[in-house]
Amino acid sequence: MLTKKRYSVKDILLWSRGEVLIFIAYSWLITFLYKVLGFTFLHVPWTPVALIGTAVAFMVGFQNNSAYDRIWEARKIWGAIVNTSRTWGMKIQDMLTNEYATHPVSEETLKEEKRILIYRHIAWMTALRYAMRQRKPWETSYKVKTNQEWSKIIHIPEKISNLEDNLILYISKEEYQYVLSKENKQTALIFLQSKHLRKLKEQGVIWEFSFLELENVLEELLTHQGKSERIKNFPYPRQYASLAFYLVKLFCILLPFGIIPEFAEIGQNLVKNHSFISDYFIWVAIPFCASVSWAFHIMERIARIGENPFEGNVNDVPISAIVRGIEIDLRQLLDENKEEIPKQFPIYRNAQM
What we know:
By secondary structure, the protein is an all-alpha fold. About 70% of the residues lie in helices and about 0% in strands. It has helices spanning about 10-15, 15-35, 45-95, 105-135, 145-150, 155-160, 165, 175-180, 185-205, 210-235, 240-270, 275-280, 285-305, 320-335.
């Protein structure tokens, strides 16, 4: 997953270069019609344009706040998954013992039971991250050309490999077939965990109170899963998103009709002292209109990108790296050889398009 320490103006302009060129060309066209061809009727009073701009600012601001809330909530959920996963690994290591077993098992058997439970948990996280990457009908940012360019320089494992090839690394073939037969594979894995814990409790390998503690951890994991699925499966309300999108477009269309006559009037006032400048001052409206239009557009586009924090964009919650980090921690707790533990996914910093 790509992470960047900062975004430069160059990065943002490259990301929105198509819209920038459109705003410049549109502003130039209206200025040309007004100044050269004398279409002075292309004039809209500044007051209604300003009122629309104010409404757009409120709407886009609300959209940005809501999108940021969704991103931040998603990050908190996956931060909680990190903590609960470490708790799971710690309790599995300490609560599977022969202390209360009626028929004690060997240390090798205990070690294998611990490995199965921890590996199945890694499989659960893997299934969850793949579920979060599944494309929903309202996730359309991948259609934008510049977003596609960014996607080529970031590492999204879920787009490179499939769930089936990853799950088989952590669970048995029988469990693999069972999980793949279910629609919600991550929930099926939690069910297998609970079933396994009950079996160990009946054997006495897990004390009854320890069994309840571990079941509580599974319940907590299901809670985190449900919260993450809620963000994924419930989009930002389209009435707000659509309204902001169309209001920004309306504002960008009307803006030159309000600003260009204002600049023409300023140019006329400069005739006495700066006659040369006054003739060309109206053309200053082009970069001014383009800049204001771009500012409103880029705020709306950033909010639109942030609505879906698991879509696979550059600013998404890095769930792939989070899951791989937990896997490394848990497998180190199992004292596995360093060479057998997978490395963290590539991280690109200050990548250029």
